[in-house]
């Protein structure tokens, strides 16, 4: 998110001074690190949590359409940068990887059939295929079928236009573009405080993780893109807009395989149904990952709990975030999500063999010797005030900005990096409203659909999706 915003501002206003403060020793080592997320390039092609079934049995697709729209904006922005030579060879960060949904059981098969019918004619989901035929599904993803009972009802959807995105490589390339164009990037710098001065400037107090003495920076505009730690920093800023917000941290694990023979047999991202009470980020999936030219498989996630707000954070992060103004929302959100608490406890207590059995539901003939455990990134879900319930746990991302637009930060997680471009465009409109008209030609050059919805204009959607696919060298 920070690298995307910084790059956009450099494109829009090259003469502005930009400084990036990074706590770790390199770019994108936290949530954007490729092994700390699934890299799906979330576009709702396969993620079933974006298409819930309504009480009347019909499928709600508005969430899926929104997420797909957002990813198309990100694709446009990346294409603009690639075309101008501001990003390297597209395969360094994005690679074609079919997206699949796979379910078993009569009820789930009926649901997936309805979902396919609801999406297949939408312009943003062109090319979506559906099958209940084991031989067809085996052709799409060979490891899903052998060892499965022939009597078990199964169904799958597939779309070849899916991608695998290395957001770590992408963020690193964006940071390099910024630095090459005058931005100052300081690594190993921890922000300890953010305070508004009487002259209107923000004082950002920092200390070095290694070496030199503490130092201060003064800025007219501040973006807090600190992942889970954004909540604590925004609280320190004292802006009234952050009152009532809390955070619920969720950690996770994946199983990973680098076995070349196994990797060669599975070339897709396959998403299933979430367990009852599980958060959206815990939807099980068996993924192809392409990282720095090497291909691996990843299955998970297995949810866990840590009070840290960052993988590299402190065990006191959660406790330090509690304030009188967010205590009631946090308690209300906790009591209102007891099924989530039960799910997390179950995941923490699960044996290794139980966890591997979850993989075998996707890959019946999978063997433990081919897989090893990795720890995923830390996610902090948004808790906010609610007039009726007192507080709610929100899945998604949310921008919190001061009334005068001088400081803003991003809270939340999924779908995260995939939607960085549209979220940062929205932040620019919020924080720099007096400059939007002057910037509009450049904004449209960066994102041709700026100010429009592709879902409202099939011809425009076709044109833009075809063009970005050509530039990024991925399927249409």
From TrEMBL:
Reaction catalyzed: (S)-malate + a quinone = a quinol + oxaloacetate
Keyword match Flavoprotein: yes
Pathway(s) the chain acts in: Carbohydrate metabolism; tricarboxylic acid cycle; oxaloacetate from (S)-malate (quinone route): step 1/1
Pfam families: Mqo
Enzyme class: oxidoreductase
Keywords per UniProt: FAD, Flavoprotein, Oxidoreductase, Tricarboxylic acid cycle
Taxonomy, superkingdom: Bacteria
A GO MF term: (S)-2-hydroxyglutarate dehydrogenase activity
Cofactor (UniProt): FAD
Enzyme Commission number: 1.1.5.4
Tagged with keyword Glycoprotein: no
An individual GO BP term: tricarboxylic acid cycle
PANTHER family the record matches: L-2-HYDROXYGLUTARATE DEHYDROGENASE, MITOCHONDRIAL (PTHR43104)
UniProt similarity note: Belongs to the MQO family.
Protein name: Probable malate:quinone oxidoreductase
Species: Conyzicola nivalis
């Amino acid at each position: 998110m920070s690298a995307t915003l910084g790059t956009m501002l450099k494109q829009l206003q090259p003469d502005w001074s930009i400084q990036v403060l990074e706590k770790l020793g390199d770019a994108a080592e936290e949530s954007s690190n490729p092994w700390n997320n699934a890299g799906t390039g979330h576009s709702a092609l396969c993620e079933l949590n974006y298409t819930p079934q309504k009480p009347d049995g019909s499928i709600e697709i508005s969430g899926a359409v929104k997420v797909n729209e957002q990813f198309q904006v990100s694709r446009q922005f990346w294409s603009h940068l690639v075309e101008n030579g501001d990003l390297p060879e597209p395969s360094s960060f994005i690679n074609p990887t079919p997206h699949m949904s796979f379910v078993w059981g009569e009820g789930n098969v009926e649901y997936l059939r309805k979902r396919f019918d609801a999406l297949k004619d939408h312009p943003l989901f062109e090319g979506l295929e559906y099958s209940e035929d084991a031989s067809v599904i085996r052709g799409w993803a060979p490891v899903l079928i052998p060892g499965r009972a022939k009597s078990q009802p199964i169904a799958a959807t597939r779309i070849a236009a899916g991608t695998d995105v290395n957001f770590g490589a992408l963020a690193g390339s964006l940071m390099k573009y910024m630095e090459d164009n005058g931005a100052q990037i300081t690594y190993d710098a921890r922000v300890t405080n953010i305070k508004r001065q009487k002259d209107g400037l923000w004082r950002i107090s920092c200390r070095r993780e290694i070496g030199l003495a503490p130092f201060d920076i003064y800025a007219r505009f501040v973006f807090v893109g600190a992942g889970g730690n954004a909540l604590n920093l925004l609280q320190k800023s004292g802006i009234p807009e952050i009152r009532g917000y809390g955070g619920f941290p969720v950690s996770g694990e994946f199983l990973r395989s680098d076995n070349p023979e196994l990797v060669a047999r599975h070339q897709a991202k396959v998403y299933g149904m979430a367990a009852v009470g599980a958060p959206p980020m815990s939807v099980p999936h068996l993924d192809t990952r392409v990282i720095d030219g090497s291909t691996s498989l990843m299955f998970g996630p297995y949810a866990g709990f840590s009070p840290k707000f960052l993988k590299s954070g402190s065990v006191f992060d959660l406790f330090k975030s509690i304030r009188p103004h967010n205590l009631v929302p946090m308690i209300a959100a906790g009591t209102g999500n007891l099924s989530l608490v039960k799910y997390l406890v179950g995941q923490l207590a699960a044996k290794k063999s139980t966890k591997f059995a979850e993989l075998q539901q996707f890959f019946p003939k999978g063997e433990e010797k081919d897989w090893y455990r990795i720890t995923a990134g830390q996610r902090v879900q948004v808790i906010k005030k609610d007039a009726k319930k007192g507080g709610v746990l929100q899945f998604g991302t949310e921008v919190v900005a001061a009334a005068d637009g001088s400081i803003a930060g991003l809270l939340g997680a999924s779908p995260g990096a995939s939607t960085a471009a549209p979220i940062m465009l929205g932040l620019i409109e919020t924080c720099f409203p007096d400059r939007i008209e002057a910037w509009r030609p450049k904004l449209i050059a960066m994102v041709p659909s700026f100010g429009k919805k592709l879902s409202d204009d099939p011809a425009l959607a076709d044109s833009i999706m075809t063009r970005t696919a050509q530039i990024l060298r991925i399927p249409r």
